[in-house]
Design the sequence.
């Protein structure tokens, strides 16, 4: 029997609530991508809702719920979903390799001519492959714990860090802990102990789920800011590359490949393509710029992949398209970012001030 069916903890979302939330989000959400990919993204949104008690969960938090629980509750094929999400990741990696080797053209499509992440807009964009490569590299590195620590040291800031691990849910239950404890408290000095007692497992099994364990707390980073700053500094192709790296970070949480693929791939690119103009100093700087100052923590957006692709029906534009228009110096309508945390116009004013 799979781990999602074992009653290790009462904080796993009931299937009926999962299905209700999935239906509600699907009815209200229009993303700038295909329906198949939208379903993958909604799986992540339902998982987040279950943790926070939002949507159909009606204030009840189920903080041990994982994407695996959601997929089983939706009666999908877990292996097929994980494989399809991995395929989307692999296509991004393949484009980056082709760009590094001078074999990529100016369209963000796979070798069959389908747009990456099945985002229809990508069929029409004319991009610089070297800029895409730079953005994927920088976007991956800024997610690395050591890169963040070095940026904290250089710029005297506190970002925070963590990592995805295979967590044994039986041991988690026996420790009287849940996914919220792992995600929100500091555990940097406990990682080796967690491995010794079997909470962090070396291999996947029926008792394990892929869960986030926070190492250190801090103000965090904004994906929106990383995308826009990369574009302002290195061009809109680099901004798209950072966006693609962030998409890898989202999709890998329920994919066939091992975790932290965005980080590992960035270091692989750095090692394999030493003449590709990949600069770790730029990663430190971008990590700093994308960090959220404490005084602005309630203002700076940090949009999820779903939120970046969600279409404002009044203006037929989504946040990632707004970010690209801003980078290119074009006018764009005012829309809300990150569930109404701020507007795109207010956010870009802050970007301008931060760049000086």
Sequence:
């Amino acid at each position: 029997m799979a781990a999602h069916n074992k009653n290790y903890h009462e904080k796993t979302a009931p299937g009926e609530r999962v299905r209700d939330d999935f239906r509600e989000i699907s009815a209200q959400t229009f993303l700038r991508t295909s329906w198949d990919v939208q379903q993958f993204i909604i799986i992540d949104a339902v998982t987040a809702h279950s943790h926070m008690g939002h949507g159909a969960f009606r204030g009840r938090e189920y903080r041990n719920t994982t994407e695996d629980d959601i997929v089983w509750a939706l009666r999908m094929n877990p292996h097929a979903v994980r494989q399809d999400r991995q395929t989307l990741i692999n296509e991004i990696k393949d484009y980056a390799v082709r760009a590094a080797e001078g074999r990529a053209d100016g369209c963000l499509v796979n070798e069959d001519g389908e747009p990456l992440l099945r985002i229809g807009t990508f069929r029409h964009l004319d991009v610089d492959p070297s800029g895409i490569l730079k953005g994927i590299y920088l976007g991956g590195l800024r997610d690395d714990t050591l890169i963040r620590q070095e940026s904290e040291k250089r710029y005297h800031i506190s970002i925070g860090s963590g990592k995805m691990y295979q967590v044994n849910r039986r041991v988690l239950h026996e420790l009287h802990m849940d996914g919220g404890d792992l995600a929100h408290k500091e555990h940097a000095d406990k990682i080796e102990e967690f491995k010794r007692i079997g909470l962090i497992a070396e291999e996947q099994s029926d008792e394990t789920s892929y869960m986030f364990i926070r190492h250190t707390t801090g103000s965090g980073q904004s994906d929106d800011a990383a995308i826009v700053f990369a574009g302002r500094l290195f061009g809109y192709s680099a901004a798209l590359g950072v966006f693609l790296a962030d998409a890898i970070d989202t999709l890998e949480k329920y994919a066939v490949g091992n975790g932290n693929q965005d980080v590992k791939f960035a270091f692989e690119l750095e090692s394999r393509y030493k003449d590709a103009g990949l600069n770790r100093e730029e990663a430190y700087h971008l990590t700093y710029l994308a960090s959220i100052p404490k005084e602005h923590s309630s203002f700076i957006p940090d949009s999820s992949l779903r939120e970046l692709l969600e279409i404002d029906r009044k203006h037929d534009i989504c946040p990632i398209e707004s970010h690209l228009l801003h980078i290119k110096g074009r006018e764009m309508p005012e829309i809300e970012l990150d569930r109404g945390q701020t507007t795109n116009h207010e956010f870009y004013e802050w970007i301008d001030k931060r760049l000086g």
In short: The first helix runs from residue 15 to 28.
